[in-house]
Amino acid sequence: MNSSSASGSYFSGNYTAYTVIIIISAIISLLLMALTGSKARQTSQSVAQQNRRIVMVDSPDDVFRLWRKSNEQGRIVVSISRWLNFVEIEDITPKDNPVPLHVTNLALDAEKQLSPENFLTVAVRSGIAREIIHVVNESGFASRLEAVGQVEGAKARPHGILIPFIGTPRTITIPTYLKMAHSEPVLLYVNASIFSEYEPGELLMFIKRSGLHASQIILCSSKHDEQVSSKERESLNQFGNLLGTSQI
Amino acid sequence: MTDIIKNRPVLALTIVVLLGALLRLWGITSQPLLDDEVNVAFTAVNYMENGQFGPTMWHHPNLRNIIIYIVGEAFGYTPAALRAMSLTTGILSIPLVWGIVKKLAGDDLTALLASFLLAVEEVHITFSRQALQETWTPFLFLAGCYLFLVYCRQGRKPIPLILSGIFFGAGCASKFHAAFPLLTCLSFCIWTSSRDKKWQRMIFEISSLSLLPFTIYLLTYIPWFARGYRLPDWIFMQQAIIDKMLHHTGNPMDQIIDKKAWQWFLRPMVYGNFVMSEKTPNVTISWSNPLVWLLILPATAHQAWNTWHDENTEKRFGRMAPLVMFIICYLPLATSSRPIWLLTSLAVLPFAFILLARSLAEIACNVKNGIRFIVSYCLLLCIICALTYPVATGRGMHYGYLKPIVESYRSAMEQNNSGTPSVSPTAPH
User: Fold this and answer.
1) Nearest CA to B17 among B155, B118, B100, B137?
2) Residues of A in contact with B78 (CB under 8 A)
């Protein structure tokens, strides 16, 4: 290698200057990322402020329609239900490889496949949800915990299952373990099916203890679902009444 | 021929580059789009407009999505536009390899041979003609290596190393294995600067080859952060990506695609793809040329032996650099427990070809009629390239002598394509 002792000392001042520039560039890029995320959250929060309410719907896919109607974007969704409502949607890219290629926005295309079973998947694909926390009942959690090893990317943690979806954070937990990492208001969805194992007051207590704040709360009776009993729907109504006087 | 190589090396290189360009550009606009290429276009739009990953190769970094989107929106999502970056980087890699050998104090013959081997390499030709990032990544880290050598050889002026860090960062933002040559260069800097007790220089080198590439890599995630994510979310997402990458097994229907990197240089291997276009089957099959690939490990051993016995420090560095690069880039892939497709060999081939070229050049200089042997060898490679070129570019069905070979792969690939599962991981509902 060429000896660089002489040129090294010549450039030592430049080395320091360039090092400082590189460090500042790295810090600026970190700040830029943080600001980009923050600005997006602020935009979505200002929309959320206008939509603050408690709503009752009949079917899970109505939840998505309400979110879309109120222009929700980039939100954290907390789903409290016996089910995950996260069935994957069909691959809709063209298979005949036409030329010229007409490339569509998959977020808009995803909504065409909306159903009660996949409304949370569509919420992620369409950009409404940037993170999902599934709060399920204990029996459902236990069975999913057993199946962790069979699901790609899933990891068991002390208080939940991490199961990211193409990089989008997803967690499965139970009301006892629910704890919010920060105070950002969320979109809260509560399905009547959760009351198969919880009382309304009990569930509300868990939610309050978690530190959860919701900008919009949607209660779903799953009116046409035979797996949901009338007792569970009645519990949902009671929960709605309790929510009205709470400060979530 | 010898006169051209000795007296007009740039002319000789130009001929090789033109040959490589011809092989990569011929009929490019009429080559049908593969499923992967279509998915790449949708993935690019999905990322840039929605900040979301997928539907394809979501575990890879996002430079591809950014470039494809920019080019697609500017020129339309046509085959030529989608493949423009692959073609450009594929062609420019040829003179870049030549330049690296020259910077390593290599002779003109070694430099020319190394660039020629890359120019006629079938796997490289195939992927230069596809809208994937397979040829982008080696170009970017080769550029990083070249600029690193400029820095080392020309008085350690800061700017070349900064540019090197930028290219390495872009390489890592294209595919993760660009990190291997980056870490090698960084380790070399730390070793030499601590040996010379040049602490300011060392800090500059560390920041140029770690912080700077990281900054470039991070900036490619702007569309993702625009969904409202925080920095801890980014770390979580990177962990998910790395986890996916370490356990990626690809299409479970793949039956005929070779997926063991440790066998790359031990036997002929194949990569294949199938698409129906205007009711015509287009089967692309890319083989590793045994006349080249099976010589890589013997050449590596030969160069290791010569390096060990070379008493000239300058020459020793010139020998050791590609040897170390080849080993460090190849070993993680060869020892990986997950499937590694033949296309990933492009991360290793440039250094492998430098080693082989050097061995061939040394043999040619020490053996009677050695140059004639080299010329004959190169002509033979050209003939093999010409014979297999149609099938490497998806036109094998149009040539009678290739049809039986293509048909033998076609049925397996049709079954493979028809059974392709959803590209997203299955989640319990």
Assistant:
1) B118
2) 99-101
Residue B79 CA: distances (Å) to CA of A241, B86, B266, B274: 59, 11, 35, 16
User: How far off is chain B from A92, nearest CA to CA, in Å?
Assistant: 9
Rounded mean pLDDT, B235-245: 90
Q: Does B70 touch chain A (CB under 8 A)?
A: no
Give the best residue of B156, B246, B418 to mutate against chain A (max A CB count within 10 A). B156
Q: Residue A211 corresponds to which tokens in the numbers above? A: 């530190």
Cα dihedral B308, B311, B316, B317 sign: positive
* Amino acid letter, B58: W
Residues of A133-159 as b/e, b for ≥16 C-beta within 10 angstroms? Answer: bbbbbeebbeebeeebeeeebbeeeee
Residue B422 predicted with pLDDT over 60: no
- B294 vs chain A: nearest CA distance in angstroms? 32
Mark yes or no for CB contact B53/A100 under 8 Å.
no
Q: Which residues in chain A have Cβ-Cβ distances shorter than 8 Å to B79?
A: 99
3-state helix, strand, coil in chain A (%, to 5): 45, 15, 35
- Prediction ipTM score: 0.89
Question: Mapping DSSP to helix (H, G, I), strand (E, B) and coil, where does residue A165 land?
Answer: strand
This prediction's pTM: 0.91
Structure tokens at B240: 């998910």
Question: What is the C-alpha separation between B205 and B161, in angstroms, rounded?
Answer: 7
**Chain B residues in contact with A100 (beta carbon < 8 A):** 76-78
Please give the structure tokens belonging to residue B234: 């980014």
Residues of chain B with Cβ-Cβ distance to A36 below 8 Å are 222, 225-226
Mean pLDDT of A142-157: 88
pLDDT at residue B256, as a whole number: 56
Residues in CB range of B51: below 8 A, 6 or more apart: A127, B223, B224, B225, B226, B227
Work out whether the CA dihedral A106, A112, A113, A119 comes out positive or negative: positive
